[in-house]
Amino acid sequence: MPILTLDSVSLTYPGDEQPSISNLSLTINEGEFIAVIGPSGCGKSSTIGLLAGLTVPTSGKLELNGLPIQGPGPDRAIVFQDYSLFPWMTALDNIVFALQEAGRAKGEKAVQQAIELLDMVGLRNIHRKYPSELSGGMRQRVAIARAFALDAPVYLMDEPFGAVDARNRVSLQELLLRLWAGGSKKKTIFLVTHDIDEALYLADRVVVFTPGPGRIRKIVEVPFPRARNRYLLIQDARYIDLRNEILSLIQHDILEELQAVEGGAGI
Amino acid sequence: MSQTTRDRLLLLVFSLLVWQLATGWLVLLDANLFPPPLKVLSLLMEDRAVFVKSLFSSLNLLFFGYSLAVITAIPLGLVIGANRRIRLAIEPATNILGPIPPIVYIPYAIALLPTFTMSSIFVIFIGAFWPLLINTISGVESLEKGLIDSAKSLGVSRKSMLIRILLPGAMPHIISGGAISLVLAFILLTAAEMIGATSGLGWYVKYFSDFADYPRVVAGIIVIGAVVLVLMTCYRRLSAYLLRWKKT
Lengths: 267, 248
Known about the structure:
heterodimer, A: Rossmann fold
């Protein structure tokens, strides 16, 4: 059952000549894990902004459960690479605030729920710490806990692990899969990343974007059953083929661009 | 005792000794214009009742004028900062009214308002208002767009947006504006008291200078310096508490 639909969506920012997104159509099913990949400037973050309701498309339609998206709301939880958490609230207060504002819980109940969530993501002793006192990995852990505190049907994630080191990245990916699969409700995830391995490990489908203007180049089905094993996966021939395919799709544009500039010298 | 503290104490004792030597013991300077420190100290003790009364009178004006500025400028600044249209509309007004030195309002305020108390509170308010307003607006403007988006995506209410997001987000700017406001408020307070008051620290200095009683003038100046020092120390403490979430 489709939950999110983008129908010939185009977006041109005021003052820009070229559109950031051109004629984008995509249907995302309920419970699906979608990864979006592409070089910078291909409109993947702009798409998050549109789905979040923070920006309005120049033309085309965006729908959530068959209803047009008219603004931000707690039915779509968002995690950014940075700036998700409010620096003036402690880790605990960030989650309590989100629970209260989204109308999920109030007062003592919200505090209790927030503590449980922090425990669940493995952050037991940092309740009273401010984001500036936490490492980048811990901050994103809190941000993800906060997003899932909303118990929203849709999760929009804009390179949430982009600024996290490799070791923390792996454990955050595992956490994300755990939260996605757990719980009673089906959750749909729209994850923007620039890491092909991350996309292939996590997603059901990988949407490859190309820039100038941003559009979908190809949608790649990821055939591996869950639960996936990271170490077996990278040895699988189909995995290597998919990886190379996506890599060449992304690089194609960069090569074309370079050839136009340098006459193809040395490439 | 740390080396710095020791250096500072030594410097203080040395300066007081030179001052006492030059004025009190060797009498190199006019004794009325340059009173020796021991004389000033005895005056501080002698007039302590007057000083306490003046202090309360001054702090009363300062408190009302400054508080009035805080409770109007900060909410107004948050609303203006959050609303581009209002911001652009009032920009010429802030550009014209903001830079007027508030001291020039004193004679007008005295003519306009029925009591001296009201006119000084008004002048202190005006002086403290602009730096606070302008800094609150710029604090909201300079807030990371990502944080606002993050708040919007949580579906925060308008009230929470102002109180839980914009206010703390703009706080670093508000704190620096508030410090400027406090200094300006104190300058205006003492200026107003020198012009029209019958009590207060500014009045004390002006009153005794009319009688050419310069030892008391010097004593008054020292008290005013001490009061400003205490006020600014309290302000720094408050700022450190309000901005405890910032990386130090």
